[in-house]
Specification:
The chain is of the alpha/beta class and 556 residues long. The protein has 18 helices and 14 strands. The protein is 40% helix and 20% strand. The chain binds 3-methyl-2-oxobutanoic acid and zinc ion (ZN).
Length: 556
């Protein structure tokens, strides 16, 4: 049993904001993105990235289109310092990308941080100190005024050292760490004090980053805190309001999105939400949430698998299979009704797309077109014991061009499901094809076709065939108005029970000289039972006779 909640935990006090505007606003543009993968993400790894992994990650972030990248905490570790020097000295930072470095309000750390940046074209120095009651009490043992003084001193130390970075374009970011657990009035007071010392202007604003360091409340409360700050901050126009959420309550994405509605202009986070504890905000999810509403996020996420590979290689983390947009299962459907709806939706989409009708994406169960993320339709549907006939048919058609007639889908669907059930796992497309082949194409008992020839006589056909009936060779002759009819006649007159052909389809499998054809035949037996059969051969006549035998073999 959980201990009684009310005696141990307290509800979060609401923010007094009777005229809140954010609930009725709509997002129409992306924020300024800042990746903190190389700092916040990196510091949370069991084995932090080495310099070459950091370089690979940095290049991937640049390729994605991030223009602001927090590259490390140079005063905290030699690797970080060396990495930043490498970026600058090897001129690996594109002209339109600004690197960002984190530092606490301590003079020695600030000095080292400034040293790490010598020669940089453009950088953001990110100063932070914690401000919440718990941190003031437990970590610092300082009063509110002493915490404000700490932030102001840190700002002055940075300002004093700017001459060491002459020729570089240096901006300041200030974070009252644990902002969401801090009284909004105090966050405002300390931010205003930092701004006063730094002297930002509308043209050269400060970045005021208001972190949800640990999620302590619902996302609407965070949005209220952001809107409150925007409404109360002196010289608000001289600040870019940035948000930085973590995911302790599982609502990091929601908190960021509502904060954007509340006026946040800049968003910090990491790829796939890597970061301390339950992680930072997953930037990819927020970006693609915008994209699926028709807002270009300004990030290139069109090769999701490649990005995932870089991330997994550099961090040693894995992307969970149900991670929004990126997980292995995102474009799969296990339930038959979902598969059926997806199949129909994709067919409609393909028709519309080829007609260039300008129709918007509206495929059931698929929030976004997998192709937009470089993912393949092949991944869309996989087959397990819950898959419906539609999913099975879709996979055979997409992967191998096998277009099962509707009625045959109804016959093969349950057969495939039972086979998958026996295996106790989902199957690949190749395995599914194997099941189809064993069930229909490779059926050779009791009857097997050895030879087949036809003579055309006027409007009729006479066939001679050699078949093995339970291993014994039999030569049979039949007549009819076509090869299939002649063969049916030969069979029912000699070795087989009475039956007739109820349905017949055929199509090519592949193209070119070596292409084969597949024939599907449904037979009806004298007792009314029906069975499908399939035959494959480079010769369509031969394929159709094989299909008759397949159906007969399946009826015994
Ligand atoms: O989560 C946090 O508050 C941080 C700060 C340093 C911005 O990472
Ligand atoms: Zn953080």
């Amino acid at each position: 049993m959980l201990k009684p909640a009310a005696t141990k935990y307290r509800p979060f006090p609401p923010i007094d904001l009777p005229n809140r505007q954010w609930p009725t606003r709509v997002l129409t543009a992306p924020p300024i993105w800042c990746s903190v993968d190389l700092r916040d993400g990196n510091q949370a790894l069991a084995v932090p990235m080495n310099v070459s992994q950091k370089l690979e990650m940095f290049d991937a972030l640049v390729r994605c289109g991030f223009k602001e990248i927090e590259v490390g905490f140079p005063a905290a570790s030699n690797t970080e310092f060396k990495f930043i020097r490498r970026l600058i000295e090897d001129k690996r930072i594109p002209d339109d990308v600004t690197i960002q470095v984190l530092v606490q309000a301590r003079e020695d750390l600030i000095h080292k941080t400034v040293e790490s940046l010598v020669g940089v074209k453009r950088a953001i120095i990110h100063l932070y100190n914690s401000t919440s009651p718990a941190q003031r009490r437990v970590v610092f043992g300082l009063s509110k005024q002493e915490i404000v003084a700490m932030a102001v001193r840190g700002t002055c130390w940075i300002k004093d050292r700017l001459p060491l970075l002459a020729g570089s374009d240096i901006r300041l970011e200030y974070s009252p760490e644990s902002f969401s657990a801090t009284e909004v009035e105090f966050s405002c007071e300390i931010s205003a004090a930092v701004m006063e010392v730094w002297g930002p202007t509308v043209e050269r604003p400060i970045i005021l980053n208001l972190p949800d360091t640990v999620e302590v409340a619902m996302p609407n409360v965070y949005a209220d805190q952001i809107e409150w700050m925007i409404g109360h901050l002196p010289n608000r126009d001289c600040a870019i309001i940035s948000v930085h959420t973590h995911n302790d309550r599982g609502t990091g994405v929601a908190a960021t999105e509502l904060a954007m509605l509340a006026g946040a202009q800049r968003v910090e986070g990491t790829l796939f939400g890597n970061g301390e504890r339950t992680g930072n905000l997953d930037l990819i999810t927020v970006a693609l949430n915008l994209y699926m509403h028709g807002i270009d996020p300004g990030l290139d996420l069109s090769d999701m698998n490649a990005l995932k590979d870089v991330y997994q290689r550099c961090t040693g983390m894995t992307v969970p299979p149900r991670q929004p947009y990126a997980g292995e299962f995102v474009f799969t459907a296990f339930s038959g009704s979902h598969q059926d709806a997806i199949k129909k939706g994709l067919a409609e989409w393909e028709k519309n797309a080829s007609a260039e009708s300008g129709a918007a994406w509206d495929v059931p169960y698929l929030a976004i077109d997998p192709a937009d993320l470089g993912r393949q339709y092949r991944e869309v549907i996989r087959v397990n014991s819950q898959s419906g006939k539609g999913g099975v048919a879709y996979l055979l058609e997409q992967e191998f061009g096998i277009e099962l007639p509707k009625e045959m889908q109804r016959e093969f669907g349950p057969i495939a499901n039972d086979a998958v059930d026996d295996l106790g796992r989902e199957v690949t497309a190749e395995e599914l094809r194997g099941m189809f082949w064993r069930e229909y194409v490779e059926r050779t008992t009791p009857w097997k076709l050895e030879e087949f020839q036809i003579d055309r006589k006027g409007h009729g056909v006479r066939c001679t065939a050699r078949i093995l009936a339970d291993g014994v060779a039999r030569d049979i002759i039949g007549e009819g108005n076509g090869p299939i009819a002649a063969f049916v006649h030969a069979m029912v007159e000699t070795v087989a029970p009475r039956f007739e052909v109820a349905d017949y389809r055929e199509h090519a499998l592949g193209s070119g000289e070596g292409a084969s054809a597949i024939a599907y035949i449904q037979i009806r037996l004298a007792d009314g039972r029906t069975r499908w059969g399939a035959g494959v051969d480079t010769n369509i006549e031969w394929a159709s006779i094989l299909a008759v035998i397949s159906a007969l073999n399946r009826s015994t």
